[in-house]
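Q: Sequence in, structure out?
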Amino acid sequence: MTSDTMTALLDVADIRKSYGAIKAVDGVSLTVAAGEILGVIGPNGSGKTTLFNTILGQVAPNSGRVLFEGEDITGLPSLRLARRGIGRTFQSLQVFGRLSVRDNLIAAGQEFLDTATQRLFAKPDAGLGSRADEMIALFNLGHVAKREAGRLSYGQQKLVDIAMAFMPAPRLVLLDEPCAGVNPALIEELLGLLLRLNQDQGGSFIVIEHNMDFVMRLCGRVICMAQGAVLAEGTPDQIRANKAVLEAYLGD
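A: Exactly. Output:
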């Protein structure tokens, strides 16, 4: 599927963010369609994570707009965006090391309960046990569900971290370098998982990643950033063949 044939989910229009004379994000526009997986690549310092942070309200843009399902969400706090259906992962792990895998998932879901009263008077598992068990099965974490997350391998903790982002059943998830530090076997597992989430459940993702093979196999459309701006956009085959991308990103 392409963005031309699906309903628009996210529209980012001419986002700019500067730090003094440094233009971290310089007029970036992009659209993500419902059911699409968009890849964002580029060398370190090209503005990818700053773009994510402006979309998610963690950094206020100097100008530009972010629309989600047609509503202006520019600058809204991350928690409000999460409750609207936008999830994210970070480059660094966000798991609670002393909690079990299952309790990590429940804790992630509790954050999205609407009121303090709900959180205070909820069941011991906050009524989220069934959802946590679904995520455990989906992410193939059953054999470690009762173990402390901090005792798992880095790759397993990464899977837990990503599963936590999916606990509230978001309509869009922004994944920041999901393959970083993960062994090849787990990368393959993650690739298959994201493809199933997309194909079976219509999951929509934006993925920042340096693992080019992963991006090209996962994403239907790829944007390459350089110096804060969009250098090129197209299908994986078009990006592979783009000389400007080869020169700026692949160093070819």
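The radius of gyration is 18 Å.
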